[in-house]
Amino acid sequence: MTFTSILTETRGRVGLLTLNRPQALNALNAALLSELMQALAAFDADEAIGAMVVAGSERAFAAGADIKAMAEASEAEMRERSFVGLFDGIRGIKKPVIAAVSGFALGGGCELAMACDIIVAAETAKFGQPEVTIGVIPGAGGTQRLTHAVGKAIAME
Length: 157
Fold this sequence. Notes:
The protein is of the alpha/beta class. It is built from seven helices and eight strands. It has helices at 30-45, 67-72, 75-80, 83-91, 108-115, 142-150, 152-155; strands at residues 6-11, 14-19, 51-55, 60-62, 97-101, 104-106, 118-121, 126-128. Strand 2, helix 1 and strand 3 form a beta-alpha-beta unit. Helix 1 (30-45) runs parallel beside helix 4, helix 4 (83-91) runs parallel beside helix 5 (108-115) and helix 5 crosses helix 6.
């Protein structure tokens, strides 16, 4: 598999997927998410793989949706690019998917981490849904996933 927005490798029985848009703090766009799902599906189908790890860079796991790509998209394209189906697709992977979070996991990046089965966070990890401060609802069920994952009191912080 050849990808441009992610890097893949195998370490023993682990499939490692690294988000690879460092110039944009791994901001999520359609190409990155499509490649991520393709790679996860391939590792899921590979009997030699027992689990998968999704990682970003030291500075950012994923800093949210790619705002530049969103600004250029039509309303119809925005509906078509919904992250909900993609994140639900991650939940449908049969093998464990682990998010290794270092740096920022904001907006869609936070939701991507929450779509994984397990989150391992470095001390430098910073989770958030900053879109709520400008009146935008997290678009992939983030408010429900966050409350379910950490409880209401912590989610409200």
